[in-house]
């Protein structure tokens, strides 16, 4: 490993440990005295950390940017001010010299690039940490887009993954986050998903798979790929003229219907999870183009994820439970998906979900008591921290994709009602499941009645939610405060045990260096004891 890689690993690991140490010491210093002034200081600290992370990520590129994009969607483990600073972190880096890109082309094609291209643009039309896109013309006159891997990308990503392995070992060993996240599985998922971006032939196969899967969907298209000139480091596809789907000026200029576009895009994403299979894991505005006639073009399939058919059915049961206000079904499906552990407080979580849905569905409720809604969303992070809720690693990129996608939809149509759009699709899905089983029973009749009576149920439900909100909020705050106190006690004890572990390990090192056998035995005893205490505190 060369010197540059070692320095890169050091900077990433040092930053991660520094951030965690700063946050832990701050919480320990202000334990039991949390007030608005302390909270303001805390926000300043994490905002400063987020800015430092963003600066380093933009400088180093590679995995750091993608990890920052991932962290920006993790409201369960990251403070809100950290998320806000990282929001909008894009994978845009300065392009390398054209000569280096030409060198990659000729190396992959084993011949001068002019053997295949009659024209190649003078500069990149897009540049990211892994690949750059050039516009070219094949010998037969076909205009194409060439995605070329940046020189040295393999080496840099190997260093980044090594740094992440060190950081994840530290998090698993010395932080309580391992109770919420399966770091081993997360690392495997990151390696498979992000590592797949290095093989452009895999992206070609994913793009074709999406095109075959959604070939019958009107107003949706995918690029055509050229196998004969595509390699592991060079991907050649048709050139498609279009604007970013979030380009509102373009939409207005061509008199397109923003609501219809948002609805069609939502259905496209929903179809990716209805019956399982691959989903686009990076659906930001730059990867979803819009043609002048309103056609949506999905590109860049370097980052995709997979949902099994069984997990897809559980996801749809969650949507069905939310639509029909059956929150026990929602919690059952969350347990099946491994998001929710058996010892969770189901009553508390069902109540939280119910109030979230009510806040979403009822503008009147939000206007009547905005304080309740504000506190609800502000305390959601604490609920996830204190309840046995975890994010299975295989859903990490799905959650990120869903968050990005909802952001795109809100730009297109700020007033979009996702539940209303999802309702007919979920019912269609439920019907198809029953047809497969050839059963039409009481559950289907109830499902139909609930759906048909939705408008009639809406008004009394809003009134009931409003009348019950003060009492529910009181119970909610009492439970939250009790869990927070317990969490702080465990955090303090764990921190103290961790300090003793580190000190005793240092004592072992010193006693070995000077070969002081009595001191070695004492230090070893303290090390084993403090490590056992540290690992036993939940």
UniProtKB/TrEMBL annotation:
Q: Look up the domain of life of the source.
A: Bacteria
Under which name does UniProt file this protein? ABC1 kinase family protein
GO function terms (MF aspect): kinase activity
Q: Name one Pfam family in it.
A: ABC1
Membrane-spanning residues: 495-514, 520-537
Family listed: Belongs to the protein kinase superfamily. ADCK protein kinase family.
Annotated ranges, domain Protein kinase: 119-477
Q: Which N-terminal residues, if any, form the signal peptide?
A: none
Record's keyword terms, sorted:
Kinase, Membrane, Transferase, Transmembrane, Transmembrane helix
